Amino acid sequence: MVRLNLMLLVLLIACAIGLVGAQHQARKLFIALEGEGERARRINVEFGQLQLEQSTWAMHTRIEKIASQFLRMSAPDARRIQVVPAVEGVK
Amino acid sequence: MNFTASPVLAPRLPLWRSRLLVVLFVAGFAALVVRAAYLQGWNNDFLRAKGESRYSRVIEISANRGRITDRNGEVLAISTPVKSIWAIPDEVKFSAADVPRLAGLLEMSADELRKRIQSAERDFVYLKRQVPPDTADRIAELRIPGIFQNREYRRYYPGGEVMAHVLGFTGADDVGQEGMELAFQADLAGKAGSRRVIRDRRGQIVEDMESVRPAQEGSDLRLSIDAKIQSQAFFHLKAAVEAHRAKAGALVVLDIVSGEVLALVNLPTYNPNNRSRLAGAQLRNRVLTDTFEPGSTIKPFTIALALEEGRLRPDSIIQTAPGKLAVGRAIVRDARPLGALSVAQVLQKSSNVGTSKIALSLKREDMWEMFNKSGFGVAPSVPFPGVVSGRLRPHKTWLPIEQVTMSYGYGLSVSLFQLAQSYSIFARDGDLVPVSFVAVDGPMQGRQVISAETARAVRAMLEAAAGVGGTAPRAQIMGYRVAGKTGTAHKQEGNGYATNKYRASFVGFAPVSKPRLVIAVSVDEPSAGKYYGGEVAAPVFAKVMESALRSLGVAPDAPMKPVVLPPESERVEESI
Predict the structure, then answer these.
(1) Which of B205, B234, B238, B476 to mutate to test the interface with A (most CBs of A within 10 A)?
(2) How many other CB atoms are there within 10 angstroms of residue B412's CB atom?
(3) pTM of the predicted model as reported, rounded to 2 decimal places
(4) What pLDDT score does B19 carry?
(5) Which of A11, A16, B85, B482 has CB atoms 3.0–4.6 Å from B127's, for a disulfide?
């Protein structure tokens, strides 16, 4: 009887420690998740800023200006454009 | 000392008193035990909630405003987080070195900063809003008591002045104020949410308790606008407005197959990223919210109605000599006598007399219906703030002279947008295409206004009008067949018409064999000598049309021969 009780007590203590450990683990994982979520938000903001930057650099007016003024390019005359008819099956 | 001998203790207490005390104590303890068990075991929600409220917090989850992109996904408007710097004046404690440093970071003078904080009798004052995050971090490093920061958003428009009138802009609180930003405010804005969390003593979130309100991100908006065509249109219109020293200019490009607005340009314009000096004229959207008397660009509708009713054929002859026509007490004039013309030539040469004669053979209610079905006097069904319907008076009030002037575009007012949309009945096979500012991707079915035969007949006449011998030979493009109509109208001023102020316009489409785009151009008060629609507006049309067709990869439908312009002596002068 006493041995059974002792065994149960040991089991109980083990369970209790396990519970505490699991809780701790869960919180640690949750903090990590939060951190990653925050990082995702930050990266999203940065993505937005980079998109903005890309749009600003790739503005048509700017490209047009650089092409015509610095690179001395010009749109080809319509006579120098050959239109190739679309071939079936080729995209 | 013998206690028992003490006389105080001598009288014996009755036994019931001690028993009562014991019973009371036991009952008290029992009550406590029951209460404790009740709180711990059965009714523990209340206490748990109380406990959690000590370390749980409700935090806001902010929602980003959606991005606006053009049809090809190029970003036109985007929000990024910035900070607003605010102060509680009573709590602000500056050290001597802080003031200039803070003022420098806020880009204001030290005096101004002091005044800002001291003059405020409120307990809250914004020092500066929309501060870039890195500047805000440096302000935070100063650790001045009483200065706080809030996260907010700022909207950036990489397209700047080119896109200004399409997109509009948002105010300080990221709420749409104009244009698409206002029209789609509800979709773009999203909803901020909140959630309840448990924080540990270091302020880290350790457990999610419940989501009070989930955040709803603003949805992205993909417009029908093509950034490339838009910037080309802006570039060419600006060049024309400057060359002709015009007061203003407007241009709209419609994809006639899908009804999408590919470009919408207004001049003068403004930079939506920096709106510190903004005048009303810059904000005006002349395409959608301004109306004007269209002049000759209305003539095709009068002629289409006559053809539709079978009264005339394109080759029917109309005598326009001697270039004058008396209607009641008024006289309709042509720029010069043109003699006998076919109906097609009336449109090609833009004869007022010819059109008036045709109009006099029509019933006024039929003319009203034709105009109304073509979209005049009805606000276009686009969700654009401030879109106007123009003015088309009920036909019962029309006098004969008014019926005549309306046939060539005076006495009614339309917006440039309506004009562009209405030409879809000629560019398509007689149906009015529904227009959209949001990408549609696919052909749209319109409402039939005239028969396909009439549409084709008018299309052929409009092609002649935009060719050699017409009023707008400068609308021609190498490699593509174009069709269109010029308009040159006196501007209304006070009660009459100003004799030296004009509005030059051109509406046309291409390629004629299989129309794809309609472009409407209007130049307001060109004052460098030239003022005819064929000389001022048509060249803009040609340039924008050419680059747009090319960028859309539309196959040419005409031989690659240089554009032929008639000699100056044979120029067709438009009747105004």
Answers:
(1) B205
(2) 20
(3) 0.81
(4) 92
(5) B85
The answer to whether B296 is a known catalytic residue is yes
Contact A30 B159 (CB under 8 A): no
Encoded tokens for B297: 């660009």
Structure tokens at B436: 């959209």
Residue of A nearest to B202 (CA): A31
Rounded to whole angstroms, the Cα distance separating B522 from A19 reads 77
In the beta sheet, which residues pair with residue B487? B505
Three-state DSSP at B423 gives: coil
Three-state SS at B377: coil
Give the 3-state secondary structure of A1-69: CHHHHHHHHHHHHHHHHHHHHHHHHHHHHHHHHHHHHHHHHHHHHHHHHHHHHHHHHCCHHHHHHHHHH
Residue A90 has pLDDT above 60, yes or no: no
Rounded Cα distance, B168 and B221, in Å = 14
Q: Nearest to residue B301, comparing CAs of B392, B360, B380, B373?
A: B373
Q: What residues contact residue B129 under an 8 Å CB cut-off, 6+ apart?
A: B84, B85, B152, B172
Facing B206 at nearest CB: one of A31, A55, A59: A31
pLDDT at B126: 83
B544 touches B519 (CB < 8 A): yes
Spatial separation of the C-alpha atoms in residues B139 and B142, rounded to whole Å: 5
